[in-house]
TrEMBL record:
Residues 223-232 have a biased composition (Acidic residues). Residues 207-232 are annotated as: Disordered. The gene is DAAM2. This is Dishevelled associated activator of morphogenesis 2.
Length: 232
């Protein structure tokens, strides 16, 4: 517009577009919490209204749509399509569209609660050429998906205790052995304290395997002596 502000032009979203975008959303059967977050990202990115949100949800949920839909209509109480509205201060979704989306979000979380898939985790081990930090990142990503334990920082909570225990099982055996030998708090520490000790153990083991410089042999120094070559 002339004053520099943005003016959004409405263009109907096609069902094909909804199907393409739905491919970018985390499957609700894998992680319902992430599904909710991904859906919110799409809503904000495309400024979806209630009708378009319904199309996206159907494309994503597919055969499970009937289990999740509940009282969702995508409309206002007066029958008009719920429009995209956000709080000016926070940017959060508000209004009738939020009410409608909350119906879907609640039903997805209730119908598709995370089920622990521990067999997916038991096979994840640190590779010979993988650092402890890279392994922790790789393992924790899968742990968040398959453990069904909500992440938190409570050192005595299930998330931290189980994650620390499983990281110790996944580290290379020599690293785990050194941690348990030299770190007396390994059974009750935070994840970060465990990683500090894992890095130290890794460095000590690497230093031990470095080839040692050959010892220098005895050095013999020859001194030049002057001889008197003049004739008497």
């Amino acid at each position: 517009t002339n004053d520099g502000s943005q003016q959004y032009v409405f263009r109907p979203w096609t069902l094909e577009e909804a199907r393409e975008i739905a491919k970018q959303v985390t499957p609700h059967t894998d992680d319902p919490d992430k599904w909710v977050l991904d859906m919110l990202e799409v809503i904000h990115s495309y400024r979806l209204n209630g009708h378009e949100l319904g199309q996206l949800a159907q494309a994503s949920l597919q055969k499970h749509w009937h289990r999740v839909r509940g009282q969702y209509t995508g409309r206002r109480p007066n029958g008009a399509v719920a429009l995209y509205e956000t709080d000016q201060a926070t940017g959060d979704l508000t209004g009738d569209l939020k009410i409608q989306f909350d119906i879907l979000a609640t039903n997805v979380k209730q119908n598709f609660k995370k089920i622990p898939k521990l067999t997916q985790l038991s096979s994840i081990r640190q590779k010979p050429d993988e650092s402890v930090d890279d392994f922790r990142s790789r393992y924790q990503t899968q742990f968040n998906i398959h453990s069904a334990i909500p992440p938190d920082n409570n050192v005595d909570g299930a998330y931290v205790r189980y994650l620390c225990s499983e990281l110790l099982k996944g580290f290379r055996p020599e690293i785990t052995a050194r941690i348990k030998e030299h770190f007396i708090y390994w059974e009750s520490c935070t994840v970060e304290d465990l990683m500090i000790n894992a890095r130290h153990a890794e460095q000590v083991i690497q230093d031990k395997h470095k080839p040692k410089a050959p010892k220098a042999g005895p050095q013999i120094f020859l001194e030049e002596t002057e001889t008197d070559s003049t004739e008497e």
